[in-house]
Amino acid sequence: MAAAKETPRQKMIGMMYLVLTALLALNVSADILDAFAIVNDGLEKTNASVESKIEDYYNIFEQQYNKEPEKSRVYWDKANDIRVKTNEIINYIEKEIKLPLVLETENITEEELFNISDTKKSLIRNIEKTNPKNPRVFYEFDLKNIGAKDKYDAATNFMINNGNATILKNKIQEYRAFIISTVENAGLSNYNKYVGLLTDVDHNGNPIVYTDNDGQQLSWENKNFEHIILTAEIAILNKIVGEIQTTEFDAITALYKQIGSSDFKFESVQARVIQKSDFIIKGQNYEAEIFIAAADTSKAFDVKYIMGTDDYNKGKGEPVTLNSKEGKVMLSFPATTVGVHKYAGRIEIPRPDGTMAFYDFNEQFQVAPPSVTVAPINMMVMYEELQNPISVSSPGFSNDDIVVNVEGGKFTKGNASGEYFVEVNKGAKLVKVHVSAKESNGKLVDMGYQEFRVKKVPDPVVKIGDITGGKVDKEVLLSIGKVMAVMKDFDFKDFNYTIDSYTVSTYRGTFIDKINKGPKFSNEVIELISNAQTGQRIQFQDICVKSPKGEIRNVGSINVQIK
């Protein structure tokens, strides 16, 4: 099924459907079958979200009807007809197709489905959800718990052999024709090209050809439901429900837009104020456009406003008067005082008979002192040798308008919005992050700075496996075979030292020292440990580690005694 012009949501669902059908062509594993469940979960969540938006739109439609019943009645009645018809087809898919399909494939009763004692093994997440104004049922199945998710015999028998796929197709065609007829009868012509839910023919009446992997021609029913496993069939049915919801939403939107389509728009004259921002920094200018909605831009008018009030008639002092240009007035004045500021005004425009028409307006905005937020992602320090991540933002400005400078280091931008990585200069004890913000006129405003202390990266803990000292079997030492450096309780998980070298010492009649390069035991060290006697002490000393930038540190020793 396809539409003339797909929305991003429809494209997403279509892509999920293509991935799902492509996977069906393979003999996939149980893990991939579980992935179908994830795709289906996404479809169910999307459908639930769209259902909420549809209900919101019906509420808006009803409010408009209550406000202007005579003008809205014909469109509101048709919208309700669409709601009833959509209720019928969605409930049919949920109650007469999806639910019995699962029951038959799993060979269980409805009672067993809804009353399972172990909720973790339940096949269904919900029972019937109804709304007095929208009595629709949506069954949400936990497909990961379905035992026959990789079986298709019972599902194919139910959909194809029992004829349910053909009944469903006929209902889809009937629903599509009803939507087109209802909307076109409301005054919108050629609505067919905006409606998807295509099964046998495209928007131009040409047959839609479905084929299998061998190029053999298939019917719509066979393409969607023959030899298709239960998991995929549920996802396909949820995809169809989603297309029905989209069709319903587009139709009621089109009907709503028809309300007042033949009216003279100039009758709805209102004062409009568009603020550039209602949150500005002290020292900036407050800016807003004031105009009459749908007014003739060639007709001049005056704007008068008074500060410190939200009612023009109650304002004190002389109003400021501005003249319109090209149908609007550009309001601009400096923000000199921190706090919330109100103003109210009046648009005065001459009527055709020479009398004056008045349209009042009011607005408010907030002035804040210059400020900046520099949030360290790990802690209020920066470390040498690291790319220290910070997040920089400033109220009232987008991240594109933020200018960062670092004193005592250098920085690079990260991939996330407002993310930066600071590298401390060698020998620096303090780093300052200075932030400026760029106004619309290109002027930079100093927003302040944040200081960070500089610390060395802490030494790693050196171990042989989990051994840091004490008595140990030499076989355990030999099986581990290397010294490791571990950063313990350090926030930078990607920073690690490597073992550069160490000296292995012991006493066996005379002192023996073996220098080892790298973490792994050399052959000499292995021989020394292999020949060690019970009670003999072995020291791994002068353990040197290397940082990612090549700094060498001596970080201590490990002393063990052979059991």
Low-pLDDT sequence parts: 262-267
The average pLDDT score comes to: 83
Instruction: Describe the global form.
Output: flat
State the total count of DSSP E strands.
Answer: 26
Instruction: Enumerate how many helices there are, as a single number.
Output: 10
Decide which structural class fits the backbone. alpha+beta
Strand residue content = 25-35%
Largest sheet, described in full?
6 strands, mixed
Instruction: Report the radius of gyration as a whole number of Å.
Output: 37 Å
Give the N-to-C terminal Cα separation.
75 Å
| Helix proportion range | 25-40%
Please provide a written account of the structure:
There is one protein chain. The chain is an alpha+beta fold. It is 32% helix and 28% strand. The chain is built from ten helices and 26 strands. It has helices at residues 8-24, 30-67, 69-106, 110-114, 153-161, 164-185, 220-225, 230-258, 474-480, 523-530, and strands at 210-211, 217-218, 271-275, 279-281, 285-292, 302-307, 320-323, 328-334, 339-350, 356-368, 373-376, 381-383, 388-393, 402-407, 409-413, 419-424, 430-438, 444-455, 461-463, 470-472, 484-486, 498-507, 511-517, 537-546, 552-554, 558-562. Strands 20, 22, 23, 24, 25 and 26 form a six-stranded mixed sheet that branches. Strands 4-10-9-6-7 form a five-stranded mixed sheet, with no helix packed on it. The protein has a four-stranded antiparallel sheet with strand order 11-13-16-15, with no helix packed on it. It is flat and about 115 Å long. Residues 262-267 have low confidence and may be disordered.
